[in-house]
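Posting for a labmate who doesn't have an account.
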Amino acid sequence: MKRNIIIAILLTTMMLLGAVVISSNSYAITPKTGIVNEHIFYAENGNTISNANVSTVTNIYNYQGVLVSSSTGASVSFNLTYGSYQLVVQPLFGNVAGFGYVIASQLYYNLTVGKATTSLNLTVPVASTSTHSFSITGLSPSSATVSFIDSSGFVFNTITTNGTARNVSLPSGPLTVRVYYDGAYFQYGVNVVGTSPVSVSITGQENIFGYVTSSTGATISSVNVVVLNKTSLSYNTQQFTGDQYTVFSNNWTDSVVMISSPGYAPYQLYPVKAGPNSVILTPSNSTITTAYALAKNPSYLNVSITYSLNNSTPIPNLPNASVGSLYWQEILDHFTTSYLNTYLTSQFLNYTNSTIMVGSYNYALQTAKVSGSMTLTASTFSATVDAAYYNNAVTTSVYKPPLAVKIFGLATVNEPGKLQYFYQFAYSNSSLGLASSSVTVTSYTSPVKVSALSSTGFFTLNFGSLKLPKFINANIGMSWKGLTSSQYMLNSTQKNTVFVVPTNTSVSINVSNAFYNPVTGQSNYLLSNFTWTVNGKSVVYGYNISFNFGTTLKSTVNITGVSASNQTNKTSFTVYAYNGTPFANYTISYSGKSPYRGNTSATSTSPVPISVPQLTPVSFSAYNSSLTIPGTSYKMFLDYDWNFTNFTSASPNATNRFPTPTLNGTNLPGNLTVTGVTGGSTKVYFAVNVTVTTPPSPAINVYNVTNTKLSIINPVSGVSVLLSGNATTDPYFPISELSFNWSFSYQNGTKIGYNSAAIPFVSGSFNGTWVVVKFNTLQNVVVTLKVTHNGVSGYLNRTLTMLVNTPRLVVNSIYVAGKLVQGSASTIYINVTNKGNENTTIFKIWIVVNGVTVAQQTYTNEPLNVSQTRNLSFKWSPNLKGSLNIEVLANNTSEPTYFNQLGAYTTTVSVSPPAYTTPLIVIGIIVVIVVIFLGYYRFATRGSRASKTESKPKIQIPEQKKLEKKK
C-alpha cells in the first residue's frame, strides 16, 4: 500500500501543477489540439533499469471518467484537445532483459495539454521476481484457483493447482495469496523472501459467512466483499453470485470487511468475528448534477456541477474509488482541500465539443472554481463547481427554431451504491419550448431536467416554437364502479361533446389521452396542470379527477389546461346523469319464421314460453332495443346478455342450436338482459321447449327361423326368414314408444307389394318390430326399415342376395320331330339345364296349354348335375288343333314350386287337324309350315345341344316366362 500512498501524493502534486484555468481571449469554434509523445521506463528501487514492456497499455481519461484515448507500447503518441486529463499506465507482469520477470505497478499521472507538442517521460516502479516453490495443503482431490496480489491490489499471477508444489514467479516482500476453493475465498498474508518456498494451508482457517438481504425485500443477485488491512492499507475485493458469501483468513485481527451489493450502501464489519455474519443492506443513492445555462446573450454558457455523495459512493475517477467506501477512499487517497479543489476544477474541459454543443457551436472555458465551501465528512461529500464558457460567434439567432442541443451524459453506476448523474439545460428565451428529446425528461420548460441515464453517450434536446395545447374531448376517459362498457359518449363533436354517467356515483374523469401539446407532439399530462369547474361552482385539480354529479340531469364541465411547455387552453363538455331502464325489444325466429316477438321496459315476472326444434338454427335479436335520455334525442349505448343453458352471447343478434330436446313437459330456462351504460337494466325471462328432431337409429338383423334364429347375411330363396328390428335405438325414447314399418323393392327401385308372390308373408307384422317372410325371387331385394317417433323417422336399407340350396331346372328349348297332328302322338324333344347348386336324378317335365297340363313325363335315374344340360324326349298327342301357345316346365321335388315358372319355356306351335278333314290346299300349307319349322329349328338349335348359360333380362324384375316364339 506504500506505493498507493506515493501515487496519491504524486497525483495531488501533479494536479496542482497541471491544473490550468483558461482565461485567454481565444474563442475559436475549432478546439486547439496538441501532440503528446509518451515514453515509459521501468525503475526498481528508484533506479531506472530499462524501457517499458512493449505490451504496456496506457489509457487517457478526462476528469469526468470518460476514456478519451488508449494505446499499447512503451513509446506512443496522442493527439489531444487542450485541457486536463488523467493518464493511467496499467500494471503489468512481464519480462525485462537482464532482470527476468518483473511486476510493474499501476501509475496515475495528471496531464495538461496546452501547447502544440509535449514530450512526456514516465517512470513506472517495478519489482523483480524470483522463482519460488508454492504449495497448498488441505485440499481434497478437487483443485483450487490461487491468485497472487501485490499491495496495490494488482493480481499479477493466477494458477490452478490440486495441492502439488508448483514453481511461480513472485516478488520479495508482503503479498496477499487468495485461494478460491469450494465456493469460498481463503486469504493469506505472506512475506516472500529470496527464493524460499511459499506454502499455505486450508486447514486452520477461520471464515466469515452469511446471507445478504435487502431492507426492501428485493432479491440480492450478487455480493461484493472488500477485505481491507488497517495496518498495511491494502485491500482486495471478492465477488459472489447470489445472496451469500464465505471468506476465509488466517488472521482477522487487522481486517475491516465491507459487504455490499450494487445499489446498496456497504455494511462494515469491525472488529471481524469469525462465524456467521448475515447482514441487511439498505439502498443508497448519490447524485452528481451538471447544470448548463445559456444566457440571454447566447455567447455565454455557464456550467455548474454539484456533488452530493454519501459513504456508499467514493468520489469517482480517483485511484482508490474501487474500495467501495467514501471514508476509506479519504484515508487511502489522503484527501486535502487543495487536492479536491484541483480535482473538481479539472472536471471542466477547455472546449465543450465533448460535453455540450448548442446548435453547431461549442464554447471555450474562461473560468472554473469551487463555489462556496465544499463539505467532506467521514460519510459524506458535497461541493459545487462553477465554470464560465464563451463563444463570440454565437448570437441570438441561435434561438430561432429549430434548435438542437447535444449533451454528453454518464449512465447510472451501481458499484456499490447507486451513483446517478443528472443533467439540466436552462435557456433565456420565452419563445422556445422543448419539442423532443432522445432521453426522458422531467420538465419541458427552462431548465429542462433530464432523468438518470441508462447508457453513456450524447443525447439530444430539440427545441421549437411555443404553441397552444389542444383538447380532444372525444378522447376523455370516464370510469366508475360497476362500469361494463366504455361507450358513454352520446355526441363526439368538439364543440358539443356529450357524456352520460350514473346518478349519485363517483365518476373518474381522465384527460391524459385528450390533451395534446403540439410543441412536443405528445400529451405530457404528468407535466401539465389542469383546473376543473362543474356548473361554474365546484373546482378540482389534476389530469384525473373524481366527481359525483348527483341527480342533476345536465351538467357543464369546463377545463383549463397548462401544458408542459407552459401554454394555456380551455375546453368544455356536457354530462347527463341518468339511470333509466332500457326498452327491451326482442325477436326469436327459425326456419324463416318469427313466431316470438315482444317488448317491455320492465323486468318480466313470468317467463315467455317458446318452442323451437332441436338442432335447428334459432336467431335471437334485441337490436331494436333502446334507451333515450329524457327531453333529448340522445340514445344511450346498450349492453346485451343472452343467457340460456349452454349458450350465452353479448351480441344484440345471436344464433344458437339447442342440441338436446326437452321431454316430459320440462323446459330450458333462459333470459335476455338489456343494460344501459349507466347500469339501468331490463330483463326478459324465457321458458324454452325444444322439440325432438333426432330420428331413431334403425337396425336390421336377418335370422334363419329353422335354425333357432341363427343370424344370416343372405336368405335362402323360398325359405322363411325373420327380419328383426329389435336392436333399433333412440337417444330419447325406449323401443316400446317407437313405431316400425317394413317395405321392399328391387334394386332398380321397383316396389314390391306386401304379401306379393315374390315376398309372401309368413308371420309377425309389417308394422312390428319383426316379420317373417319368404323371398320367392332370385333378384336382389332392398329391405327398408322405417322407425318413427313423434313424426320423426329414421330409415335403414339393407340389400339381400338370395341363395339357392336345391336343384333348379330351366327349360332352354323344345323340338318337335315331324308335324303335330290333332289326336296323333308326336315326339317332343326338350333341352333342359340344372342351374341350382345341388345334383338331381329324379325330375318331371310337363306341357301346359291354356292353364291345363296336357302332357308330362317323370324321369328317374336320370342324373342332371349342377350346370349340366341334357336333351330329353317324351310323347304328346295334342287334342286341339290350330296355333297353340304352350308352356314347357321342369321340376325337381326338392326345389320350391315357384322355380317352375322361373325355369319355364313358352312358345307357339301349330297343330294340324286330322288328315281326313284337311283340304289339300291346307295340307300343302301345312307342309310348307313344317318345312319352315324344321328349317328354323335346325337353324335355332344348331350347336345348342351343348350347355348354355341362362340369359337374364336387362332390367331385373321378378323372373318372367321366356317368350321365345316359333314361326
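Reply:
Got it, the C-alpha cells are right above this. The CA atoms of residues 78 and 663 lie 99 Å apart.
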